[in-house]
Write a structure and sequence with these properties.
The complex is a heterotrimer. Chain A contains seven helices and no strands. By secondary structure, chain A is mainly α. In chain A, α2 packs antiparallel against α3 and α3 runs antiparallel to α4. Chain B is mainly α. Chain B is built from four helices and no strands. Chain C has a two-stranded antiparallel ribbon. Classes of the chains: A mainly alpha, B mainly alpha, C mainly alpha.
Chain lengths: 194, 123, 485
C-alpha cells in the first residue's frame, strides 16, 4: 500500500516538476486570464449588439462576473466580492427591474441603435481610444510581478478609516442623498395629492 | 522587463511569446481599454436610456480594472487604488439608482424610454 | 498616531447637521403644511455658517483634517463663502417658487444642502479620492434637483433635462475616473502634492491621464466642445436650480480645477497653460455668439454662463497670484449678478409660467423694480462700468495682459462688447413699446416681499462692489496667496 502511494507521489512530483520546467503554471495562469478576459469582452460586446434589452442585461451581468473573477485573479478578493455583490447583485437587479417597469409590447427589438453612419463614427472613436491606450500601456513599464501579498482587507480598512475617512463619510451622505433622490423621482406626484 | 515598441525592430518572436504567456500589467490595461471602448461605442450608438446606463456601467467597470491592476502591480505596499475603486463602485451604484428612477419617471410621463424622443428642449 | 482634526471640518459638519434638521423638520411638519419654516431654518443656519467662516481666515498655517488630505486654506474658505452666499440667496428668492412649483419642498432643501456639502468638500479636497466623492455628491444632488419639477406644466421638460444631465454627467465621470486611474498608475499616488513630485507623471500614461482628467472637468464646466448638455439642462431645470448650476456648480468646478492644475500638475503647465488659454477663447467667442440667437432667457443665460466660464479660465491661464485673484473676484461678483437675474426669472416663471423673451415683455410696467434689477444684473454680466462686472473684467484682463496673453485680452474685450448686445435685447423686451398686433402683458405681478428684498440686495451689492471694490479685492488678495506666491 505504501509502495503504491509513494509511487503515485513520485509520479505526481515528476509530472509537476516537468510542467514547471516548461513553464506550465505560467501557461495555465495565462489560459485562465484569457478565458476570463474573453468572457468579459464578449459579453460586453453582447450588451452593445443584442437586439433584446433583456438579453443585454443578462450579458451585462456576465460581464460583471467576468470582471469580478479578474479581480480575484489579481489577489484582490475583497474587490471581487464587492464586485459580485454590488454589480452582479444590486446593479443587475436594478437594471432588470427598470426594464420590467418600462415594458414595451415588442421586446424583440427593444434595444435599438442609431444609423450605420453614426455607428461607423462611434466605432472610429472607440478604435482610436483603443489605439491610444495600446501605445500608452506599451510605453509604460511592463511589470509582471505583484509586490504586496499583505492582508488586502486590513490594508483597505486602514486607509479607509484613517487617511480617507472624510471621503468615506461623504460617501455615506452620498448614498443617503441618492436614496432620497431616487425615491422622490420615481414616486412623482400622484393625481389625488397634486 | 520592458517591451519597448518605440524600437519595433528589436521585438523578436520570443518577445511576443513571452508577452503572450506572462500576464502582467499591460494585459489588464489593454483589456480595460477594450472594455471602455465598447462602453463608449454603446454610449454613442444606443437609443434607449437603460442601454445607455448599461454602457456607462461598462465604462466604470473598465476604470475599476485599471485601478485594481495598477494597484496590484505597484511596487509599494499600498491599497489606495483599490480604495478608489471601492468609492467608484459606490458612486456608480448611486448613479444607477438615480438613472433607473429617472427612466421610470420619463416612461410614466411620456410613454417612451428613447433618448431621441426627448426633444422638447431645443432652442 | 495621527489625530483627526475636527476643527478643520466644522463648516461641513454644520452643513450636514442643517441637512438632517431639514429632513426631520419636513417629516414633523405633516402633510399640507407650509414648508416655509424649513427654508427659513436653512437660510438662518447658512447665514450663521457664513459668519463663522470669516473667523477661519488665518495667516500662513492652514488647518488640515488628516495628513494634508483635506486642507482648509484661505483659498478654500473663500470659495466656500461663494457657495454659501449663492445658496442663501437662492433659498430666499425661490421661497415662492418652491411653494408653487415644487411638490417635495422639504427634500428640495435637503438636496440643496447636500449639493452645498459636495461643493465645500470639493473646495478643500487635496487628493483625487476626496475631490471625486465631493464632485459626485454635488452632481448626484443636482441630477435629482434638475428633475424636481413635477407640476403638470414643467414635469416633462424637467425630467428630460435630468436624464440628459445624468447621461452626460455619468459619462464624463467615467472619462475623468479613467484619467485618474492612469495618473495613479503613473505616479503611484492619489494625493495632489505627492503626484506633482513624481517624475513618472511625464510618461505617456501620466500625460494621457492628465488630459482625460481635464476633459472630465471641462464636461462639468460645459467648456465649449463639451457643452451640449448645458443649454437643455439649464432650460428644463427648475429656475432656482438653474441659478445654482450657473453659479455654484461652475464656481466649484473652477475651484477644484485650479487646485488640480496648480498643485497636482504644476510642472506640466507648459502643456496645459496654452490649452486653457485656447479653450477660454473658444468659450468666450462661441458662448457669446450662440447666446445671441436664444429667445428663452434661461437658455441665453446658459450660453452666457459658458462665456463667463471662459473669462474665468482666461485668468486661470495666467497661472500667477494676480490671475487667481481675478478669477476669485469674478466668481464672487458673478454670484451676485446671477442672483439678481434669476430672482427676477423665478418670479416671472412663477407668475407667467415661462421664461421666454415674450414672457418678460412689459415687465417694466408690471414691476419696475424687477425690470431694474434684471437690467443692472445683466449689465454687470456684460461688464458695463458702474457695476461689479466692470471691475471684475478689469482685474482679469489686466492680469491676462501682464501674463503675456495680449490676444486673449483682445478677444475677451471684443466679446464683452458683443455680449452687451444680447443682454440689452432682454432689457429692450422689458422696456420697449408695443409692436403692431401685440398685446401688453402688463397685468401687475404679485412680487413676493422676500424675492424683492433679495433681488434688491443683490443689485446693491453688485453696484457696491463696482463702485468700491477694495473690500472684496482685499479678501481675494488674502485668499490667492495660498499656493501661488
Amino acid at each position: 500500500m505504501t509502495d503504491v502511494l509513494s509511487f503515485i507521489h513520485f509520479i505526481v512530483n515528476g509530472v509537476m516538476d516537468f510542467l514547471v520546467s516548461i513553464g506550465a503554471p505560467d501557461l495555465i495562469m495565462a489560459g485562465i486570464f484569457y478565458l476570463m478576459a474573453a468572457v468579459t469582452v464578449l459579453s460586453a460586446l453582447g450588451v452593445v449588439l443584442m437586439r433584446n434589452v433583456v438579453h443585454s442585461a443578462l450579458m451585462l451581468t456576465a460581464s460583471f462576473i467576468g470582471v469580478g473573477c479578474l479581480y480575484i485573479y489579481m489577489n484582490a478578493s475583497f474587490m471581487g466580492a464587492v464586485q459580485f455583490l454590488v454589480y452582479g447583485g444590486a446593479v443587475a437587479v436594478l437594471i432588470v427591474m427598470a426594464i420590467m417597469l418600462t415594458r414595451r409590447p415588442d421586446m424583440a427589438h427593444s434595444n435599438p441603435s442609431r444609423g450605420a453612419l453614426h455607428q461607423l463614427g462611434a466605432a472610429i472613436v472607440a478604435a482610436v481610444f483603443c489605439l491610444v491606450m495600446l501605445i500608452v500601456s506599451m510605453a509604460s513599464p511592463f511589470r509582471t510581478e505583484a509586490s504586496h501579498l499583505g492582508d488586502e482587507v486590513k490594508g483597505i480598512a486602514d486607509l479607509m478609516l484613517t487617511e480617507y475617512v472624510l471621503p468615506f463619510e461623504v460617501a455615506a451622505v452620498l448614498l443617503l442623498i441618492a436614496m432620497i433622490g431616487a425615491i422622490i423621482l420615481a414616486k412623482g406626484v400622484s393625481e389625488n395629492d397634486a | 522587463m520592458t517591451l519597448d515598441i518605440l524600437h519595433p525592430f528589436s521585438i523578436t518572436f520570443m518577445d511576443m511569446m513571452n508577452f503572450a504567456t506572462h500576464i502582467g500589467l499591460a494585459h489588464f490595461l489593454l483589456l480595460s481599454a477594450v472594455l471602455f471602448a465598447i462602453g463608449l461605442f454603446g454610449l454613442l450608438t444606443k437609443r434607449g436610456i437603460i442601454p445607455v446606463l448599461m454602457c456607462i456601467e461598462l465604462m466604470l467597470n473598465a476604470v475599476n480594472i485599471n485601478l485594481v491592476a495598477f494597484n496590484h502591480y505597484m511596487p509599494v505596499d499600498d491599497y489606495s487604488g483599490e480604495l478608489m475603486a471601492i468609492f467608484a463602485v459606490a458612486v456608480a451604484a448611486c448613479e444607477v439608482a438615480i438613472g433607473v428612477a429617472l427612466a421610470f419617471r420619463i416612461y410614466r410621463d411620456r410613454g417612451t424610454v428613447n433618448v431621441d424622443d426627448l426633444n422638447s428642449l431645443k432652442g | 498616531m495621527m489625530m483627526m482634526n475636527f476643527a478643520a471640518i466644522t463648516t461641513e459638519i454644520g452643513i450636514v447637521i442643517l441637512m438632517l434638521v431639514t429632513l426631520v423638520m419636513d417629516l414633523l411638519l405633516g402633510r399640507g403644511k407650509s414648508r416655509a419654516p424649513v427654508a427659513y431654518v436653512t437660510a438662518i443656519g447658512l447665514c450663521a455658517l457664513l459668519v463663522y467662516t470669516f473667523g477661519l481666515y488665518h495667516g500662513d498655517r492652514s488647518l488640515t483634517f488628516f495628513a494634508q488630505l483635506f486642507i482648509v486654506d484661505n483659498y478654500a474658505i473663500f470659495f466656500k463663502q461663494v457657495f454659501i452666499v449663492g445658496m442663501i440667496f437662492t433659498v430666499l428668492f425661490s421661497l415662492d417658487y418652491a411653494r408653487k412649483c415644487i411638490h417635495y419642498q422639504g427634500e428640495f432643501y435637503t438636496l440643496l444642502l447636500s449639493a452645498l456639502l459636495g461643493m465645500c468638500t470639493l473646495a478643500s479636497a487635496n487628493d483625487f479620492v476626496t475631490s471625486f466623492v465631493g464632485l459626485e455628491l454635488m452632481t448626484v444632488s443636482f441630477y435629482a434637483l434638475v428633475g424636481f419639477r413635477m407640476d403638470p406644466t414643467g414635469t416633462a421638460t424637467s425630467g428630460e433635462a435630468a436624464v440628459k444631465y445624468l447621461i452626460f454627467g455619468a459619462a464624463s465621470s467615467a472619462v475623468m475616473l479613467y484619467g485618474i486611474s492612469l495618473v495613479y498608475g503613473a505616479t503611484g499616488s492619489l494625493v495632489f502634492a505627492a503626484m506633482s513630485r513624481n517624475i513618472h507623471l511625464y510618461y505617456a500614461a501620466g500625460l494621457v491621464g492628465a488630459v482625460m482628467v481635464i476633459v472630465g472637468f471641462f464636461f462639468k464646466l460645459s467648456v465649449i466642445p463639451f457643452h451640449m448638455w448645458a443649454p437643455d439642462v439649464y432650460e428644463g431645470a427648475p429656475t432656482p436650480v438653474t441659478a445654482l448650476l450657473a453659479m455654484g456648480s461652475k464656481a466649484a468646478g473652477i475651484a477644484v480645477l485650479m487646485r488640480v492644475m496648480y498643485t497636482a500638475f504644476p510642472f506640466i503647465g507648459y502643456y496645459w497653460l496654452p490649452l486653457i488659454a485656447i479653450f477660454s477663447a473658444i468659450c468666450m467667442i462661441f458662448g457669446n455668439i450662440m447666446a445671441i440667437h436664444q429667445t428663452d432667457v434661461k437658455r441665453m443665460l446658459a450660453y452666457s454662463s459658458i462665456a463667463q466660464a471662459g473669462y474665468m479660465m482666461a485668468g486661470m491661464a495666467v497661472a500667477n497670484a494676480a490671475g487667481m485673484k481675478a478669477v476669485m473676484f469674478y466668481a464672487m461678483l458673478y454670484v451676485f449678478a446671477n442672483v439678481g437675474a434669476f430672482a427676477v426669472l423665478c418670479v416671472v416663471d412663477t407668475e407667467r409660467g415661462g421664461t421666454d423673451r415674450r414672457d418678460i415683455t412689459g415687465l417694466a410696467q408690471a414691476s419696475p423694480i424687477l425690470a431694474a434689477v434684471m437690467t443692472v444684473s445683466l449689465l454687470s454680466m456684460a461688464g458695463i462700468p458702474p457695476t461689479a462686472g466692470f471691475s471684475g473684467k478689469l482685474y482679469i484682463f489686466t492680469a491676462v495682459v501682464d501674463g503675456g496673453y495680449l490676444w486673449l485680452a483682445v478677444v475677451g474685450f471684443v466679446m464683452s462688447m458683443i455680449s452687451a448686445y444680447y443682454y440689452l435685447l432682454v432689457a429692450k423686451a422689458m422696456y420697449r413699446d408695443l409692436a403692431a398686433g401685440e398685446e401688453w402683458r402688463a397685468e401687475p405681478i404679485a412680487v413676493p416681499m422676500l424675492a424683492k428684498i433679495t433681488a434688491a440686495a443683490a443689485v446693491i451689492i453688485t453696484l457696491g462692489i463696482g463702485i468700491y471694490p477694495e473690500i472684496l479685492a482685499t479678501m481675494t488678495n488674502i485668499a490667492s496667496q495660498t499656493f501661488m506666491r
